[in-house]
Batch of 2 targets.
Target 1
Amino acid sequence: MLVVPGQPLELQAVPVPALAEGELLVRVTACSLCGSDLHTAHGRRPHPVPTILGHEIVGRIAALGPGPAPVCVSGRPLAVGERITWSVCASCGRCDRCLQGMPQKCRQLVKYGHSALRSPHGLSGGLADYVQVFAGTAIVPLPDTLTDTAAAPASCAVATAAAIVRTIRQQLAGFGPDGGSLATRSAVVLGGGMLGLSVASLLAAGGVGRLVLLDPVADRRSRAVATVPGLVAAPPPPQIDQAWVASLLGPAEADRSDGADQRFEADGFDVVVEASGAATSIPAALELTATGGTCILAGSVSPTPGIAFDPERVVRRQVAIHGVHNYRPEDLVTAVEHLASPAGGPLGALAGPVFPIERVNEAMALAATPEALRVVVTP
Ligand SMILES: [Zn+2]
Ligand SMILES: [Zn+2]
């Protein structure tokens, strides 16, 4: 557990609490380290301590609380021994935000791996032998074909990516006769970490017309190209200009048109996803968005300095800017289905290496390097 931010994690014995109705005790089988675990461990964002980190968790049900068995997202009662993953948040289901379809912003939200040890939700981090799973959590059983390691990133990175792609489709549905179709759209993802790769993998599986990923690290670009079919990777340019945008969009413009008179010069990408959280990347994301395009900001999850951007550009281009943070239950279902599908297989294969929990500090150190994508810890 994290006792002092900036210091190594400590292994400590913690009593297992009695389960209430609707709760589960899960024996953890894998927990992958997310960028936000690193932000917290290094003290880059406020967090109560001591705390058990880890919110990308897979495990087997070890015990059920009293009363009727909790159900999975499809409504089926769960049983001891089932292998599951679950949403990063538990929601009340009754507050205004839950009722508005934003359970991830519930007024009584409990986030796994984000609670003080000395709280009613102390045993909720995945860097432990057991996790208490609370009522109001979306639980998704895992298919046998999906390994613990490959499934671990589902409950944060891949499900958040699914929420991003759902948001994009909802936005596109308001434009033109082809509704939310991705086939005629161009997309650029900024950031080749697990979130960016997950978005790219889902967009490719959704048949997006043109897919570009920007990342300054050559190894990360190579990994993106090897993971996502049809993806073009490039370093972000020092200065974004029309010629550069056209060089990435050019061939696809001809491909996607029906005839010569349909070929218009694009002024940017229809879909832009900022998945890196780097401060310099946010104005670039806005700059890259085409007229009528959608710009999703999802990477900024620790305090970030303010940015300067040209509001006239946003107005004249009718750019839609969406923030996406966490996700709804159906997004976790999409994430698990994608990882278990042939299209998502290469994405799941990126998780690792695996460290036993006794070496959690080695795992945390490796996870902090730019080459690492999803280091996995097993109890
Ligand atoms: Zn996370
Ligand atoms: Zn609520």
Target 2
Amino acid sequence: MEILGFYPTWYVPGIGTAWVMGIIGVIHVVASHTSVGASFLFALLETKAYRENKPQWMEFIKKYGMFLLVFSYIIGSITGPGIWYAITVASPRGVGGLIHNFVWVWAAEWVYFTVEVIGVYALVYLIGKVDAKTHLKLTWSFALASWATMLLIVGILSFMMWPGHDGWYLTGSTNDAFYNLNFFAHLGTRTGSMFVMAVVVGLMVASRMRDLELRREVVRFLAPIGLVGGLFAVMMFFYYLQTLPQNAIVMLHAHLKPVYAQGMVAVFAVATLWLLFAWWQPQRIHASLAAAVFLFVAIVGVWPEERMRESMRKPYVAGQYIYSNQVIARDVPGKGIEAEVDRLAEHGYLKLHPFVPERLRTVTDQNRLEVGQLLTKIACANCHALEPGAPLRNIPDKLHRAVDEDLILAFLQGPLKHGTQPYMPRIDLPEEEARAVAHYLAAVNRGDNVERLIAQQRRQVSAQWTSAQEE
Ligand code: HEC
């Protein structure tokens, strides 16, 4: 029997690996979108400064560029690799799937990123040291390289939602994967919102400028760009919603809209009012208020947006063929990939997963609890916390703390086995594995100290083993 290519499971109590990735990802998105948006603001500002001969505007660009260097670029360059570390252990097969589709896209993205980083240093430190026209060309190159990194990553992120048509499953071609159905809508939404974020940060920088006339001019130039960006982002977001697969729409209506819709509207309203106010009263924008608006946009806008995108994708992590719990959901002839759900149903995780410890490969009365815990971590914990009350859709609360093993088993062998919940993978386990999961979940729901029980049982088993050896 052929073992399946699973990796060890990384488990984070309470928030799950999903939130670990989410938190790092959101910080990264805030930093990176601000920088990409700012690169275009610089290009537009500098073009105007060049045409209308306003060298004093370069003062603002220098200040803002410095601010980006110290905050965005440092934070962005730490969280970027941070995302790689986190996703590689949280979803190794998801990452593997993406690499097998997009390795050259990523390579190209790194080239553009290098240009971007060199660009921002050159831009800041060459102000006044090279002639204005050369500097302007440099700034535009910096902006285009920055946006190229966004464009390439968005192609990959959109494929995570779905390829959008069956072509890719047959060809496996990078082109079919990259220009997936929601690529342009997604790119448009991020492009619009990057302007809003960059302008909001720009106002923060502007609020610290002493020269009031310069401040007025710059703010009046920036605020309309933010407003147009915001409107564009909203339009593209509605277009984006039209490009989603059915499972995402179910998730959106049933679980996400009720929680996040008001926050999204509030962010749009607050940002719009703030930009209008800034345009109207450029002298009266205070740094503390500007920082508060920025935090509001990041926490009430970006965090829900990223979480929504990740939740909507459920049950898949990428391309509608890799489930979040790492199991391959369907055949992908174009890549020579075969579905695994039925093989797991027939032989079970305990036989097919390479990282199950030998002593847990056969279920006994003494290890059932530990096997159940392991299987729940492998099969469910990518999407669910296992601790009652924990924030990541914890299973005990989802089961209303049911303590009846047969009832839990009926859920596992009903909806889960037959894949009737559009947001959950089809998880079809052999009878004894499903029983172990139900046994473990019932113990957790009862409030048993599961870790202590498992430790006790392990001690018992090893004592029995030692005494058997001695005889
Ligand atoms: C791909 C992610 C994913 C995996 C893997 C997953 N679930 Fe779920 N599960 C969800 C989502 C999403 C919901 C519904 C959303 C919500 O309630 O927040 C859900 C809901 C539930 C519910 C509530 C009842 C219902 O049908 O809505 C239970 C119980 C549950 N899951 C148990 C499990 C168990 C047990 C496992 C492992 C054997 C598991 N889930 C694996 C994503 C997943």
